[in-house]
Design goal:
36% helix
Length: 166
């Protein structure tokens, strides 16, 4: 599935470029990968190889995460083996706030990455995934293609149960 010119897969290309720059001799930066956005990149397999993560890093990633889009963009490669779910959140939405509080206090189950997307400002992503209301969840694959779409989940366990069905 190809996407338009903005969205999740283009950041995969940016991630590859970022990783290449961070691994240059004399570089003092840390390797991080932006979230995929739309581009001609079909899968994250086209990214340059990265160094294997140490055991502590693998444990932290396996624990599940609730991330801003910016933070996810830095970890997209490392989170590729988790179920990635975009959460279209609005601060003014009571059910969004309830989910946000649950994810913040109770945490996110292992193997799940929830990416908080600002419903009010993410116009291109809403258009790409056909999101017409806040509190919408979109599970995406490594290339940013939609695997599942639903509304109404409140807890990390609810989200993970829906994502594994998609």
């Amino acid at each position: 599935m190809r996407h338009s010119s903005t969205g999740i897969p283009a950041l995969v290309l940016i991630a590859g470029l970022s990783l290449a720059a961070c691994s240059a001799p004399g570089s003092t930066g840390t390797a991080g990968s932006p979230a995929p956005t739309q581009s001609n990149v079909e899968t994250s397999e086209s990214l340059p190889p990265t160094e294997p993560a140490d055991d502590k890093t693998n444990e932290a990633l396996a624990a599940g995460a609730y991330l801003s889009l910016e933070d996810y963009e830095k970890q997209v490669t490392e989170r590729a083996d988790t179920a990635v779910v975009l959460f279209f959140h609005a601060d003014w939405c009571p059910s969004c706030r309830a989910t946000d509080e649950s994810l913040t206090t109770a945490g996110v189950p292992a193997g799940l990455t929830v990416v908080k997307i600002d419903y009010d400002t993410a116009t291109d992503l809403k258009r790409e995934y056909g999101v017409t209301q806040q509190h919408t969840f979109i599970q995406v694959d490594r290339a940013g293609s939609q695997l599942a779409k639903w509304t109404g989940s409140v807890t990390g366990e609810d989200i993970k149960a829906q994502a594994t069905q998609g």
